[in-house]
Amino acid sequence: MDDEAPVIYGLEFQARSLAAQVAETDHIRFLVGTQSLRAENQVHHIDFDDENNLINKNLYLHREGEIWHMSASTFDKSLVTTCYNKTSDSKSEICGAVWKLPGDFDDAVHDDQTTSHQPLELVCHLNKDDCGDLKSVLWQPTGESHNLVGLTDSHILQWSLDTESLSAKTINTTPIAGKAQPKLTCGRWNPHHNCAQIATANDTTIRGWDLRSMEQVYTIENAHGQLVRDIDFNPNKQYYLVSCGDDCRVRFWDTRNVSEPLKVLSEHSHWVWAVRYNHFHDQLVLTSSSDSRVILNNIISLSSEPYGDLAERDDESDDDDDSYTEGPVEAPTDGVIATYEEHEDSVYAVAWSTADPWVFASLSYDGRLVVNRVPRAEKYKILL
């Protein structure tokens, strides 16, 4: 069996939300939420058996509504947040809640109990304070705090989660200034600067915020020619972030100097929905698009992992110089490592495994989940 061949899993319904579950062991796990107006929505708990190239799964019922966004806790593998569509006779709104996977979810996966269909256990609802639809919920990235950040159309919300009392206390609610201000579309918590900053995007602009004062720390005007769809921070270089958008571009930025992007990628032919740095090797960058493709790029020029300062060189001269000579080696060039075309619909989300730096998943709107690996040749280039 080719251990680089993708493993494909089909959901029963449409889907947009994908999250990598925090790993305390070597398990490669992902969570996927479904969207269906006709049936009960589900969270699919996916366990990828890398050794046997198999997917084990368990299903949990999400009875509150269609799942539009989902994120996994960074400190407790059993906790997850969802942003879901809540409908009533008078209105429809997107709300948020914190959930707990049933206590036996580990055993269920190992025993292949794929039809359990237990409901998720509600921990608490997240109060929006009438601030509009909840777009996304972000966990503190290092897991050292139980604080959460939520984004609505026009507000940044902060909560303190207490899992013992099953409550989330609102810490702060900050409106985005201006009546004509475009709606917030996405956000990302910065893992650097003591986790005191986040970045948000609205229309074509990216803004950095200090969570302690809720003051702007930088603004990238016209970051893209059209709507910004996603942003992510380099896990190893504190001032570097990447963005993608409806202009089919991926742009890399240094927040200390935002006048021009550091680099622009143009491999996609339609809207770029998601971009993600590899958590361990930041030269590996994934993007996904409405062109139904996932692209893995090598951005070594902006990476924190330069190749070694010692190069083994053939000495063809007659003198007795050491064959190992100090000095810079010729740096490999940036470029596309691989293009993955297993999807047949818009690929709304990609996620790297938290346990294995060489495994990632992608999710398209038709409910197809694909688990792939970094090509073996590229892996050895990085490791050796």
Q: What's the tally of helices? A: 2
Please summarize the sheet with the most strands: 5 strands, mixed
Quaternary state of the chains: single chain
Structural class, from helix and strand content?
A: mainly beta
Low-confidence stretches: 308-328
Biggest β-sheet: strands ordered side by side in the sheet: 2-3-4-5-9
The Cα radius of gyration reads 22 Å
* Silhouette: globular
The number of distinct β-strands equals: 31
Q: Level of helix content?
A: under 10%
What is the CA–CA distance across the termini? Answer: 25 Å
Portion in beta strands? over 45%
Mean residue pLDDT: 89
Describe the structure concisely.
By secondary structure, the protein is mostly beta strands. The protein has helices spanning 105-110, 376-383; strands at 7-10, 14-20, 28-35, 41-49, 54-62, 67-72, 79-87, 92-100, 118-119, 121-126, 134-139, 147-152, 155-162, 167-175, 184-189, 197-202, 205-210, 215-220, 228-233, 240-245, 250-254, 263-265, 272-277, 284-289, 294-298, 310-312, 324-326, 335-340, 347-352, 359-364, 368-373.
Task: Describe this entry's structure for a reader.
The chain is globular, with a radius of gyration of 22 Å. It has a 5-stranded mixed sheet with strand order 2-3-4-5-9. A 4-stranded antiparallel sheet has the order 1-31-30-29, with no helix packed on it. The model is unreliable at 308-328 (pLDDT under 50). It is mainly beta and 384 residues long. The chain contains 2 helices and 31 strands. The longest helix has 8 residues, at 376-383.
Describe the secondary structure blueprint for this structure:
Layout: E1 7-10, E2 14-20, E3 28-35, E4 41-49, E5 54-62, E6 67-72, E7 79-87, E8 92-100, H1 105-110, E9 118-119, E10 121-126, E11 134-139, E12 147-152, E13 155-162, E14 167-175, E15 184-189, E16 197-202, E17 205-210, E18 215-220, E19 228-233, E20 240-245, E21 250-254, E22 263-265, E23 272-277, E24 284-289, E25 294-298, E26 310-312, E27 324-326, E28 335-340, E29 347-352, E30 359-364, E31 368-373, H2 376-383
